[in-house]
Amino acid sequence: MKKRMALGLKLMLVLSLVMSLLSACGMPSVQDTYPLESVSGSGNTTSYVYRAADRSVPEVAQELSEERRPDQISAENEERMFLVYQDQYYHLQQDPNKKEDTLIEVDSKEYVRQNYDSSFLQGYLTATLIGNLFDSFGGSGYGKYRGYTDRDTYKPNQGTYRAPTSSDKKAAPPITVDRKGSITRRGGDTDTSVGSGGGLFSRKKEPSTGTVERNKSGGLFDSPKSSYKKPKTRVGGGRIKRRR
């Protein structure tokens, strides 16, 4: 009977250990993934729209730029901001129907070329970037598109938005942010964001301070206390024989 009880306890301990390991492996990381809401286009001309619930446009821009610093970022704005990476344009927009949410539109570079008008982007991006982007189009894009929130008025040329399918979700660019911990950047205290004036993403320098505590005797490494006694050793008896 006792053996059975001991065996049962051991099995319970093993099962609890396994369950704890599995739960640790299956727990979500500190990164939160925004849900995919709409998809448009195909191939290298795509647009994916995510929803950041209860997050303002500047908050989302801050989070995304801290995780992956953009090549260019527009000035802080409550309604609309742009983050530009090498091959992607992040168009952050306040949802007009739910102002506490932010819509994150991730457009491929080709999608921007095919749909946006350069005159609309001039208020958010540098002239050099716009010129390079639309250089093959003679300085202007093919469309008058102004973002997902204005899709009913300024329709994109490359298809219409639709609910994402399972394959769309697998192919969609991941949008993740780390909302825990702190981020330390190297470099100066100036900001390179477009039109921001260093307000949203400025880097603050904080002087590092510290103290070294010394004990009352005045030294960092004092000698051992005088009360310290060396261990006693005993010399055993015996004779040493030498070979002849």
TrEMBL record:
Basic and acidic residues: compositionally biased ranges: 167-189
Alphabetized InterPro entries for the sequence: DUF4247 (IPR025341)
Keyword tags: Signal
Annotated segments matching region Disordered: 147-244
Basic residues bias spans: 227-244
Ranges of compositional bias, category Polar residues: 155-166
Protein name, per record: DUF4247 domain-containing protein
Organism, as annotated: Paenibacillus xylanilyticus
